[in-house]
Amino acid sequence: MRAVASYLVLLLALPFAALAIVSPANEYRAQGIAAPDCDGPLQVLMSAAPAALIYGAGALLAYRAGRRFHRLVSLLCLIIALATVPNIVEAVHELYRNAADGACRA
Fold first, then answer.
1. How far apart are CA 3 and CA 47, in angstroms?
2. Among the four residues 2, 5, 9, 61, which has the most C-beta atoms within 10 Å?
3. What residue intervals traverse the membrane (predicted)?
């Protein structure tokens, strides 16, 4: 029963992971416009950080289970968690860039 609940959590977190992997930290630069995006990096971090934590924990817990199916799930969780890391790094870099330029002051 515990394994079913764990897989359900991983399945429900999949949209957050997909959003975290696909969305750019600066939507304007993705379109070719050289302008600061003040709310884009936070939107990426709000979906990417929980997805990386959930799938990182899922990879660890599934690997410790030891069966072949669990090892496959662990590998898939690890791939998803590692796919979110570049977007997290890009979003943090964009936040620092906006703070250094003073472009996004409230």
1. 24
2. 61
3. 44-63, 72-89
Q: What is the pLDDT of residues 68-80, one digit of tens each?
A: 888 999 999 999 9
The span from the CA of 56 to the CA of 79, in Å, is: 9
Q: Tokens 């949209």 belong to which residue? A: 15
- Range list of H helices, the chain: 2-12, 14-22, 27-30, 40-65, 68-101
Q: Where do the structural domains in the chain lie, given as residue ranges?
A: 1-29+39-101
Q: What is the pLDDT of residues 45-62, one digit of tens each?
A: 898 999 999 999 999 988
Q: Tokens 């669990």 sit at which residue? A: 70
Whether pTM > 0.90 for this model: the answer is: no
